[in-house]
Amino acid sequence: MFRGVNAINMDSKGRFAMPTRYRDRIAEISNNQMIATIDTQERCLLIYPLPEWEQIESQIAALPAYNPATRRIQRLLLGHATELEIDGAGRVLLSQPLREYAYLDKKLILLGQGKKFELWDEDHWTKRRDEYLDEDALGQDVPEELMNIAL
After folding, report:
1. What is the pTM of this model?
2. Which of these, 78, 103, 100, 110, lies nearest to 9 by C-alpha position?
3. pLDDT tens digit string along 91-133?
4. For the chain, give me the number of helices (H) and strands (E)?
């Protein structure tokens, strides 16, 4: 499981260092191979260990391609899926199209989300996080399933 919020930097070549606390787990479950794709709801990237992505990829690929909504998701998620690998120095290289989609600049936030990570531009993440907190304070619609979890 990947947990926590990590402030990290990206260099001029589009590389970031995977925090050391995740490296052993990623090596164990995926031999340092990961997949990055876009989040269709937010301007951030989703990063999965390869075995986790393969399960999701199979489910998405099995959706009926004649349905416009599922075809849209297939194009966006599968079309942007890009292989990543952690090099010997613990760095991960992001492609230019993925960096542009998520507006990634030098300062990034790597957000643990259980079986995957989200990668955000730091300023964009801070803004969205604050908006989420404000929405919650206004008593937005909260799914009943969430209300049953004691935090």
Report:
1. 0.90
2. 110
3. 999 999 999 999 999 999 999 999 999 999 999 999 999 998 8
4. 7, 8
Provide the residue type at 104 as one letter.
L
Residue 36 structure tokens: 């990055």
User: Cβ distance 124 to 28 under 8 Å?
Assistant: no
16-55 per-residue burial string, b: 16 or more CB within 10 A, e: under 16: bbbbeebeeebeeebebbbbbbbbeeeebbbbbbbebbee
DSSP one-letter string for 93-142 = EPPHHHHHHTT--SEEEEEE-BSSEEEEEHHHHHHHHHHHHHHHHTT---
pLDDT above 80 (res 143): no
